[in-house]
Amino acid sequence: MGSWGPTSGPPLRDMPLTAENATALPGPDWLRTRRAQAFERFEATPLPTGAEEVWRYSRIADLDLERFSAVTPSADASVPAGLQPVLDAVGPRAGLLVVRNGAVVHHEVDEALAAKGVVVGGLADVADGADLLGATGGEQDAFTALNEALLPDAAVIDVPKGVIIERPIVVLEWVEGDSVAAMSRTIVRVGERAQATVVDVLASPDVDAFVAPIVELQVADAGVLKWLGVQDLGRRVWQVGYHLSRVGRDATLTTANVVLGGDYARVRTDSRLVGQGGSSNLLAVYFGEGTQMHDFRTLQDHDAPRTTSDLLFKGAVEDQSASVYSGLIRIRKGAAGTNAYQTNRNLVLGKGAHADSVPNLEIEENDVRCSHASAVGPIDEDQRYYLESRGVPTEVAERLIVLGFFEEIFERTPVPGLRELLRSAVAAKLGAL
Questions:
Q1: First to last CA, the chain
Q2: CA 262 to CA 425: how far, in whole Å?
Q3: pLDDT by residue (tens digit) across 130-170?
Q4: What is the b/e burial string over 265-299, where b = at least 16 CB atoms within 10 angstroms of the residue's CB?
Q5: What integer pLDDT is reported at residue 213 of this predicted model?
Q6: Among residues 91, 97, 87, 92, which one has the least CA distance to residue 118?
Q7: pLDDT at 16
């Protein structure tokens, strides 16, 4: 697929998935040690199976990790040509990170922001890199261990206390080479009363690869972070991703995830509200065609009083594609005054397509307000009839309905300049139907 990228990439030298090759990757001594420890955890941890609830409905049984090899970090510091339209659409930016197969190959930041202590770089560019890696917590499994074991570096964005960044910071992650296992990690830390917007694009040409990206978002008290992720991987790429966040007192996190590519593309999203008055807004758009499968598992974890979370995920499936959404709102004891909402809606556009939606609640406190809703179905006949009765051809009417279905989320995504590009990417998929 790769609607923003070329159709092929240069061959890269590969290495088997072994402890020796994990520790041979460049980096400081502490990172080499962490890699070795992580590879031991990976070898000791069985791969998940579909019998586990969190992997129910998935295609995890089809994964053959032995087909993939680790890669030597790239030295190409250029912006991938296929991702230049992203930079053009974003417009003026505060910083840029270019990541190739997990390695940070280029980083830049506005000089005035650097003077205020803003870091846009790798783990070596922050004084506490060893503590920052994995500081967000989250649950560990074989894939999180493999990520750390084969991680060349992490893309780090660190915004100090009180610094407000008006323009977005862009992370461009490019995966290239057949039969590669590429690990990447994006870490964003927003300090007290600080504000930032981050665009994180993960894309590839038409390659046969495995990726296990991790995104860690930390928002300190009264901080504001807006994060927009776009996944446009090639149609033969397997993804097992993990997004996790910690939201402090009176802090606000907004994430929007647009998922278009991959063969099997899974993202687990855990958002933990740990400070009173914190809020988390989680948005997603996904569109599957052919035999694609998009798999989402979410956790809205309220661990402090008077916190708020609002989740809205919308997807469409066509041809023989499938989607899975399984979400849990967890209200812990002591999180009184919590408001939590979860909505998942799916359009099924073909007889061979399929969507599963499983919302859940786990409440340990009384003074809360929670709701969840899900819907799976075809295009609304009344909406189609309304347009057809006014002279709109059936094909055009269906196209307008699907685009309108997603528009609610596009209008709420950060970085207005990217909205039209995202609409065009979805329209391109519709145009192929």
A1: 14
A2: 14
A3: 999 999 999 999 999 999 999 999 999 999 999 999 999 99
A4: bbbbbbbbbbbebbbbbbbbbbbbbeebbbbbbbb
A5: 98
A6: 97
A7: 62
Q: What is residue 24's predicted lDDT score, i.e. its pLDDT?
A: 75
Q: What are phi and psi of 118, to 5 degrees?
A: -70, 130
What per-residue confidence (pLDDT) applies to 382?
87
State residue 13's pLDDT score.
Answer: 37
SS (H, E, C) the chain: CCCCCCCCCCCCCEECCCHHHHHCCCCCHHHHHHHHHHHHHHHHCCCCCCCCHHHCCCCHHHCCHHHCEEECCCCCCCCCHHHHHHHHHHCCCCEEEEEECCEEEEEEECHHHHHCCCEEECHHHCCCHHHHCCCCCCCCCHHHHHHHHCCCCCEEEEECCCCECCCCEEEEEECCCCCEEECCEEEEEECCCCEEEEEEEEECCCCCEEECCEEEEEECCCCEEEEEEEEECCCCCEEEEEEEEEECCCCEEEEEEEECCCCEEEEEEEEEECCCCCEEEEEEEEEECCCCEEEEEEEEEECCCCCEEEEEEEEEECCCCEEEEEEEEEECCCCCCEEEEEEEEEEECCCCCEEEEEEEEEECCCCEEEEEEEEEECCCHHHHHHHHCCCCCHHHHHHHHHHHHHHHHHCCCCCHHHHHHHHHHHHHHHHCC
* pLDDT for the residue 9: 36
Below-50 pLDDT ranges, the chain: 1-14, 433
Name 256's Cβ contacts closer than 8 Å, sequence gap at least 6: 227, 228, 229, 283, 284, 285, 409, 412, 413, 414
